[in-house]
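Support request, please re-run this one:
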Amino acid sequence: MAGEIRVRAVDWVAPLPQGLVADYSTPDGDVFVSTVLVPLVCVRCPSTRSHIVQGRWGDELTLICIRCGTDWTGRWAGIGDDDGAASRALLKQIIVESGFTPGTGVGDTIGDIRDEFHAGLWTPSRIDQRLADALPLTVQGDHGGTGPEAIAQCMVSTLPDWRLRSLRFSEALARTIGLLRAPGAGTDTETLDVLDSVMGLARTIAALEPGDLRHEPEAQIES
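Re-run finished. Output below.
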């Protein structure tokens, strides 16, 4: 998702003075509930932008941070979201408005990112290389169940230098985490092929010469 995902949350609750109506408040029984739009913030780092959204129609919203690789279920102190109803409604809204076409797999997206790299459409940074160098050593070679956590752990290791990391590389890793979180991912051939592709990209980046790396930030992300 480009930008922030903003949700309506409770700002304050006060007794309802007789006859008082405010544009920014909604009546709820005998009280006024003032609401405010707030961004969904990663549960591990301060990032509020460019989260990966994951889930099927009817599921609760799952988010993956492209800054640190953390995945979590989208809940917030909103109106009536104690049972996750607002989270499920938001995911349905995102699916409808995104124009997502079933069958567009994560593997296709990872392939596009890899092709952009080989075509010279984006250049890895020195922070990308630091991350890429650690990935093949951290993720189990037999694609064990620790794969998602290992990738996220590596992404967290470069959090202080987040602004120097390429968005495309972060996106590739975050999408891989989401794919590995799916039920049965550990034995799914397509999933393992995607993981092999991402690890191959990481090894290629790790082997680049210093002169082939980008030293300036690709983008500025608000913290």
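The helical segments are 85-98, 106-118, 126-138, 147-157, 167-181, 189-206. The CA atoms of residues 44 and 70 lie 7 Å apart.
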